[in-house]
């Protein structure tokens, strides 16, 4: 039997299966952050769970399913995410429109940890698995879906090759992922700011750990190299904080700020202390100043999906 929290430290609990292959914890705080991130992307993508034009898929694979929220929502009826109320954000933006439910679709979600809810729809199931190991599914899928695996995958070309191998002819693979380089189009993100020092150091530490933190711009090339045809790539700008004047972007930025602040220590502590040998005290001092920058409406930072 595979444990969930057998590997733990004062940083939080981590995956017992393949411990050390993924730097983020799997505790309740991280699960909440992942659900906030899911809500952010639903708003960003106009409440769409998939962008590919698939019709009535019979089998769908969700790689790196996390809390399983995407798989559950894709297979069941619309609902209202109460986290919108808890975070004092617009709950109406969390109301999912009819048409997303696919009760006749078999949906499999895989992840390193079995942290998904105990109640799940009959057409959804979850498996503990490492997506970088050889896939052993008995049947191919109409859709292979994966999102925000930034800083989680060591060998992207191999992952893409397996996705291609297990996608039915005429089926779709959809990858949604980040370029986590922060930038400001108006020059308000100075390189001398604590937030700039933090993100630059964090991204380099992830690369040193052999996990690409910025796979987004490379997805199209990897998919073509794997054999996929008719590949389309779209770039989305995601503001950090509610600084945009545009209401839609302001809402996205507010959700994004919540998930970054919730995950700030989880993003940072393990890499900085264990890989870079920073002291925990020095990390916390840096993060205190990073939080100030994150909340500063004069700093118009963003990154891309």
CA gyration radius, whole angstroms: 19 Å
What is the makeup of the main sheet? 5 strands, parallel
First-residue to last-residue Cα separation: 36 Å
Detail the poorly predicted runs: 1-20, 78-99
Number of helices: 8
Taken from the alpha-carbon principal axes, the silhouette is globular
Give the neighbour order of strands across the main sheet. 5-4-3-6-7
Order of helices and strands: EEHEHHEEEHEEHHEHHE
Q: What number is the mean pLDDT?
A: 87
User: Per DSSP, what share of the residues sits in E-state strands of 2 or more residues?
Assistant: 15-25%
- Structural class computed from helices and strand pairing: alpha/beta
Helix content bin: 25-40%
Quick one: how many beta strands?
10
Structural features, described:
There is one protein chain. Helices cover 34% and strands 16% of the residues. The chain is built from eight helices and ten strands. Helix 4 links the parallel strand 6 and strand 7 (167-176). Helix 4 (156-165) packs across helix 6. The chain is globular. The two termini are 36 Å apart.
């Amino acid at each position: 039997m595979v444990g969930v929290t057998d590997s733990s430290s004062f940083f939080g609990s981590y995956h017992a299966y393949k411990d050390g292959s993924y730097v983020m914890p799997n505790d309740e705080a991280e699960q909440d952050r992942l659900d906030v991130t899911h809500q952010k992307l639903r708003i960003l993508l106009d409440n769409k769970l998939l962008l590919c034009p698939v019709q009535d898929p019979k089998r769908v694979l969700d790689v790196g399913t996390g809390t399983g929220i995407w798989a559950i929502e894709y297979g069941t009826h619309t609902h209202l995410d109460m986290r919108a109320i808890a975070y004092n954000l617009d709950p109406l933006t969390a109301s999912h429109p009819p048409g997303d439910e696919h009760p006749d679709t078999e949906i499999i979600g895989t992840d390193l940890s079995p942290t998904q809810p105990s109640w799940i729809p009959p057409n959804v199931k979850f498996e503990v698995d490492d997506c970088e190991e050889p896939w052993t599914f008995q049947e191919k899928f109409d859709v292979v879906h994966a999102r925000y695996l930034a800083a989680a995958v060591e060998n992207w070309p191999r992952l893409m090759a397996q996705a291609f191998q297990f996608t039915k002819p005429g089926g779709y693979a959809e990858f949604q992922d980040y370029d986590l380089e922060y930038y400001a189009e108006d020059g308000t993100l100075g390189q001398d700011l604590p937030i700039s020092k933090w993100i630059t150091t964090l991204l380099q530490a992830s690369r040193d750990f052999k996990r690409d933190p910025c796979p987004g711009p490379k997805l199209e090339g990897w998919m073509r190299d794997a054999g996929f045809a008719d590949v389309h790539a779209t770039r989305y700008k995601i503001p950090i904080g509610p600084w945009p004047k545009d209401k839609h972007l302001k809402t996205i930025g507010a959700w994004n700020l919540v998930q970054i602040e919730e995950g700030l220590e989880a993003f940072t502590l393990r890499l900085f202390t264990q890989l870079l040998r920073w002291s925990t005290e020095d990390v916390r001092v840096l993060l205190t100043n990073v939080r100030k920058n994150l909340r500063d409406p004069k700093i118009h930072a963003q990154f891309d999906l």
